[in-house]
């Protein structure tokens, strides 16, 4: 969009804000399964002229089915961790053949989404300090949840 010669006189920041606003409008309309009259009313409230509203609604109607399929594939519920596995990896040399005695942990989270079954596992590598920090934060979250359920 920034390279379009018709838009060269518009401040790039304003252009990015307009793009974000249009994308948000389109996504919310798709998420709410809004009809053309609801979209038109909303755009009229935003002071858009009739010609632009008609053009927007025409393009939205053309791409509505593809948008709903895309939004449906994203899902609404967060992933659920079903299992965790880990292994210790000990790096002895780097790519430059320098000796580096660095232990790290390879952690794999088995996840699933309640709406669409299983997903690819989430894997990451971390140092001992990072793993201890993660475990500490998980313990804090568990304590907070326990306190919240006791009230």
From TrEMBL:
Coiled-coil segments on the chain, per record: none
One BP term from GO: sodium ion transport
Domain COMM: 80-149
PROSITE patterns on file: COMM
Domain of life: Eukaryota
Family that this chain belongs to: Belongs to the COMM domain-containing protein 3 family.
Protein name: COMM domain-containing protein 3
Protein source organism: Thalassarche chlororhynchos (Atlantic yellow-nosed albatross)
